[in-house]
Design goal:
Length: about 550
């Protein structure tokens, strides 16, 4: 018996030495294979802010539950622990597991709050695990939704800046080695194999204060006039920065359930329309540059109609003899056509091209339209006439704002920017400063007593701009009762800095002219812009300081 017990002791000693010395490396590797795992180290997207650092898009950590269906099927008797669970009921678990049968990974619930995930994990059901992810949150909600856009559930940009700047905003996932217990829970982080790199932060040119102002006033106008939609764009003409861009209808990027697809697009950059009478100042500018007219040149618009080929051009009424400034302020189609007909047929299309018509703005929005500027070797008289007052050419609201920024910036065209700039970019001089200033002076009369946009006035400031009312094009031709109301303008007119374009689609009721629908929105938005940005009012003779309730239409 003593020999037997001695043999057993020697056997145990030999086995212990074998495990600790001979097979140590092999057993360590096998243990690591069963407990060590390489897991992704999530990286959050860059923060999107307005020009003053106010957050527009941020990433918050969330918990995601996933499961190994094979392990769950072996512990089916534990599923009943989830009965009545508000996050993941046992019936929903059964459906997901059966759908993913044969796989080793299936999502159970994504983007949960930590306490929601704990409510499931605390049931200790084998095969259910937690994964750390990030979810995008948009503090401004609907106010800046069309500009900022949104990401999908995998945190990849789908619309707006989130899509346009995906390569900069997206972070790079890292890797780490961890130890898991038998239930798959991480009990120790061993080492970081590759650091996660967060996305780059982006500071937009938007001013959230002005963005909210534009959104609020546009929403009110669309509701008041029972319109189908609209856009407001505010630019800094000295830098080319977009200070505000609002659209209706809108959507809430934090809750996209039930959103109509049509509400997602950024109408200011994607939807085109014929600019109508807002082109007239540019037409007059082309005539001034060619030397065919001067600001004091008189044009006879009587009797308020003009026959061009088979078409009859009409004014709202017979304005008689008007000087060039009067042609713009009264928005005379007849006067504009008579001036345009004196020019070579290729002059006006080339002039419009210099203002950026027919070219995308370069803001980088997904689906941005370049508009349409026809290029023809020959223009017939009717085409030449309609082009002079904004038919036959298509633009977006952003393009129209860029064109008016040329006039506000002494004839220089700047590249537009949706990011905050530290200094103004180098521009291209497309018309002479003298002609640009003359046109601004003429457009100032549009908001005067004899103009078509008295409702566009801004108390205490000089304003210049132009109304437009265009019939909508349908498959059957121009509609008789559908319009786009437009106002494009700038302030302060004595030293233009800020340009605002307002479009309202399909206004209902009796009021549909640009001077009735779009001009009041411009007045309220521009009032807020000038006051918010601390532009000092000018109290001097000739500066209107009324209440902003005048009439007028175009």
């Amino acid at each position: 018996m003593l020999g037997l017990w001695l043999f057993c002791a020697l056997l145990l000693i030999w086995r212990s030495l074998d495990l600790h010395l001979v097979q140590s490396d092999f057993l360590s590797r096998q243990g690591e294979l069963r407990n060590l795992r390489i897991e992704p180290l999530p990286a959050h997207r860059g923060v999107v802010t307005d020009r003053d650092g106010r957050p527009l898009a941020v990433s918050t950590p969330v918990a995601t539950l996933w499961a190994n269906p094979r392990e769950l099927m072996e512990a089916r008797e534990t599923w009943s622990r989830l009965e009545g669970n508000p996050v993941l009921d046992h019936r929903e678990l059964a459906r997901r597991v059966e759908r993913g049968e044969g796989r080793e990974f299936v999502y159970l619930a994504r983007h949960l709050a930590p306490e929601q995930a704990r409510a499931v994990l605390e049931q200790n059901i084998p095969g259910i695990y937690e994964l750390e992810e990030y979810r995008r949150y948009y503090p401004a909600g609907e106010v800046a939704s069309h500009v900022v856009g949104f990401t999908n559930i995998d945190d990849r940009g789908q619309e707006g800046v989130e899509l346009a700047m995906e390569s900069r905003l997206a972070g790079q996932t890292g890797r780490k080695r961890v130890v898991r217990d038998l239930r798959g829970r991480v009990i120790q982080d061993i080492e970081v194999l590759e650091q996660a790199r967060p996305g780059q932060d982006v500071a937009l040119s938007l001013d959230l204060r002005l963005q909210y102002l534009a959104y609020r006033e546009l929403l009110a106008a669309v509701d008041e006039h029972d319109a189908a939609g609209g856009s407001v764009v505010v630019l800094d003409a000295r830098t080319g920065e977009v200070l505000a861009m609002a659209n209706q209808p809108g959507f809430n990027p934090n809750n996209r359930a039930g959103i109509r697809t049509g509400a997602l697009r950024n109408r200011a950059a994607t939807d085109v329309f014929e600019p109508g009478s807002t082109v007239k100042p540019i037409t007059i500018g082309a005539a001034l540059e060619t030397g065919l007219v001067r600001p004091d040149t008189m044009v006879d618009t009587a009797p308020g109609t003009l026959r061009v080929g088979r078409n009859t051009i009409r004014d709202h009424r017979d304005y008689g003899r008007l000087d060039i400034a009067g042609v713009i302020s009264r928005s005379s189609n007849v006067g504009t056509v008579k001036v345009a007909m004196q020019m070579d047929e290729q002059v006006l299309p080339g002039f419009l091209e210099r203002f950026g018509f027919g070219f995308a703005t370069g803001l980088g929005f997904p689906g941005e339209s370049a508009g349409l500027l026809p290029i023809r070797a020959r223009w017939n008289k009717a085409e030449q006439a309609t082009l002079s007052y904004g038919y036959g050419v298509s633009v977006t609201a952003v393009q129209l704002a860029r064109a008016y920024a040329v006039l506000a910036n002494d004839g220089q065209r700047l590249p537009l920017s949706l990011e905050r700039l530290e200094q103004a970019p180098v521009g291209e001089q497309v018309i002479s400063p003298d002609i640009a200033r003359s046109l601004v002076d003429m457009m100032e009369a549009v908001v005067g007593e004899q103009g078509t946009a008295r409702r566009a006035r801004v108390p205490g400031y000089r304003v210049a701009g132009k109304t437009g009312t265009v019939r909508r094009m349908t498959r059957q031709g121009y509609a008789k009762d559908r319009y786009v109301a437009i106002f494009a303008g700038m302030a302060p007119a004595d030293n233009p800095r800020y340009v605002t374009v307002v479009t309202v689609d399909d206004p209902g009721g009796d009021e549909f002219f640009g001077g009735q629908v779009a001009a009041p929105v411009f007045s309220r938005v521009m009032t807020g812009v000038l006051r918010t940005l601390n532009v000092e009012p000018r109290r001097e003779p000739g500066v209107w300081a009324g209440s902003g309730n005048g009439g007028g239409s175009s």
